[in-house]
Amino acid sequence: MSRDTNSSINTRAVLPRSQSAEVLSARLEAVGVKSIFIALAVIYFWFGGMKFTSYEAQGLVPLVSNSPVLGWLYGIFSVRTFSSLLGVLEISIGVLILARFLSPKLSALGAFLSAGLFVITLTLMASTPGVFEPSIGFPGLSVMPGQFLLKDFGLLAASVFAFGNSLKAIATGSAIRGDLNN
User: Fold this and answer.
1) Which residues span the domain enclosing 77?
2) Which of 17, 38, 35, 16 is nearest to 27 (CA)?
């Protein structure tokens, strides 16, 4: 009998802490969800805007020219034109993702395109010379382009999350209220 009483007392003592932990975790998760959409949009706006500079266009050359997936595009477009078109695509993806606050259909499209773009950029790890640091050997990554490309795994994960969240909002109709928790 004392066991039940102790168990009951412990449960009561823990319950308020548990409830406050649930409230805190729900609030943090809501902020995290919104932050993913905002962060992806900011990254796309910034990276996309940089694609209109000569500096960025030339920086893409070693990545794109060695890629069997993208390299052929330099046969159709100049380095600057390719970079500018990529900039338009990236800024458009950023706008679509940020539209999650208004339309989950638009953000679903943006997140899907984002995931596809990051899958393509991750293929550059296999085709770009210098990804692995020879003095360290595998799995040591060079700072550029190795670690630069590796970050795309995290951005791919954020894009997949944003796509799933947007699809869920379409199914539940939550975007009309702008509720990013659904």
Assistant:
1) 37-174
2) 35
Half-sphere exposure of 116 (CA within 13 A, CB side): 10
Residue 111 domain-assigned? yes
Report the number of distinct structural domains present in the chain.
1
Which residue is associated with the tokens 């208004």?
A: 102
Q: How far apart are CA 160 and CA 182, in angstroms?
A: 15
55-89 per-position pLDDT tens digit: 999 999 999 999 999 999 999 999 999 999 999 99
User: What CA–CA distance (Å, rounded) separates 140 from 2?
Assistant: 59
Express each pLDDT in 112-152 by its tens digit.
999 999 999 999 999 999 888 888 877 889 888 989 999 99
The rounded distance, in Å, linking the Cα atoms of 150 and 14 is 42
3-state secondary structure of 118: helix
The string of DSSP letters for 15-63 reads: HHHHHHHHHHHHHHHHHHHHHHHHHHHHHHHHHHHHTTSHHHHHHHHHH
d(CA 82, CA 162): 27
